[in-house]
Design a protein that fits this description.
By secondary structure, this protein is α+β, with helices and mostly antiparallel strands. It has a single domain, classed as Nuclear Transport Factor 2, Chain: A (Roll), CATH 3.10.450. 48% of the residues lie in helices and 33% in strands. Strands 1-5-4-3-2 form a five-stranded mixed β-sheet. The longest helix has 48 residues. The termini are far apart.
Length: 174
């Protein structure tokens, strides 16, 4: 009986260790994927900052879906999002990131990292009239196996920013 119990305990601990190792390997692989994908998001930000929208476009899948932070904005594809970025650059002299934090997204069922990226960013912009604006920005991105962004969900006060920047641009024109 003792041998049977000992055998059962050894078997159970081996199974538990094996399952834990498999789970850890999956999490570690997804954390590595998150780290690789974080570099893609940083490249997207860097490309936007220097207004290289061709480089920015290369980081997104052609079928990428965008959820705009602008109330009522129905643009949801790469071309429409790129057009919005052109608009931001037309009313802004300079964009700069003052702080950025990347965090992994998690699978909604398992709450384990899934390779996606969340970004918390503090932006500093200089408007066309020289005024400075600081803005907090949150976004999360999903990726395909080629490390192209397939989904971008952005959250920031776009309406207030567009209003301020547009008013500053009008003052410069006068």
């Amino acid at each position: 009986m003792k041998k049977l119990l000992l055998c059962f305990l050894v078997s159970a601990s081996l199974i538990a260790c094996t399952n834990q190792e498999t789970k850890t390997e999956t999490v570690d692989a997804n954390i590595a994927l998150f780290k690789e994908n974080s570099k893609v998001v940083q490249k997207a930000f860097d490309s936007f900052i220097i207004n290289d929208l061709n480089a920015w476009s290369e980081l997104f899948a052609d079928t990428a879906k965008f959820n705009s932070p602008v109330l009522g904005d129905t643009s949801s594809n790469k071309a429409a999002s790129r057009k919005n970025l052109v608009g931001f650059h037309s009313i802004t002299k300079e964009f700069k990131i003052t702080k950025v934090v990347y965090l992994p997204t998690v699978d909604t069922l398992t709450f384990k990292p899934d390779g996606g990226v969340r970004s918390l960013v503090e932006w500093n912009m200089v408007l066309l009239n020289g005024d400075k604006v600081d803005m907090k920005y949150y976004a999360y991105f999903k990726f395909n196996s080629d490390h192209k962004i397939v989904s971008a969900n952005e959250f920031f006060d776009a309406g207030s920013y567009i209003k301020l920047a547009s008013e500053a641009a009008e003052k410069v024109k006068k």
